[in-house]
Each structure stands twice: as structure tokens, then as C-alpha cells.
Amino acid sequence: MSYGTAGALQSAIYGALVADAALDALVSGAIYDAVPSGTLPETYVSLGRETARDASDKSGTGAVHQVDVVVITSVPGFAGAKAVAAAVSDVLHDADLVLSRGRLVSLRFERAQARRIEQGTGREIVLRFRARVEDE
Length: 136
Description:
Helices cover 26% and strands 40% of the residues. A five-stranded mixed β-sheet has the order 1-2-3-5-4. A hairpin with a 4-residue loop joins strand 4 and strand 5. The protein is elongated and about 50 Å long. It starts with 5 loop residues before the first helix and ends with a strand. The model has no long low-confidence stretch (mean pLDDT 94). Pfam families: Tail_completion_gp17.
């Protein structure tokens, strides 16, 4: 197994999200690798959990990463959060990202979970993507 491409994958995903004009229009640049302290905007996107497992074979080392991207909003109702989640999915599903180390074989939407947070006033949508990478 190689976890060597994990940082490159995270950087490429983050870069794709911040570079997308449609997503930026919805969250006004509020896309975080690490959520800052202090007052946060009403709606923002954050990189979430990641798990990785070995996917090496005879041709070389590699891994499958499950990467979460989280949409959080303090706005009641799911409509706005779902619009942002759809934009995130549009950016990442089947994206052809260039990694600084290794090669992205595929990046696909796997699932999403929407729920109420903050005593029911806020909303959170966790989108999970499956990335297959090779470490060259």
C-alpha cells in the first residue's frame, strides 16, 4: 500500500473546489481545508474525513481513498445546502485531477447523508467520494 499520494489527492480536491466559479457563487469562497475559528459564514464547505485502503497490484502501488466533503449551513431548510452539495458533486464526480504525486485513476461520487444539526436549525450534508490512486 501507498499512502504517499494522500496529500496530493487532498490538495487537488481542495484546488478543484476553490477554482469552481459555480460553487464559489454559492458560498462566496467559504471552502476550507481546515475550518477557521471565529464567526463562520452561513454556509460553507469543508474537507472532512478520509479513509484509505491498499489497492496495490502487480503493476504497482496504489490505494482507494474514501474522502468526505461536508456542506454546513445555519440556514433552515435543506434547499440551499442541497444546491451547494450538488455543485460539489458536479466539480468532483469523474474529475480529471492532476496530482503532484501519483496519478488519479478515478474519482466518483459514492453517497451523501443529510441531517439536521444545532438543535435542528442548521443542516449538514456529508458527501463521500471514492478515489482510486496509483503511486508512480
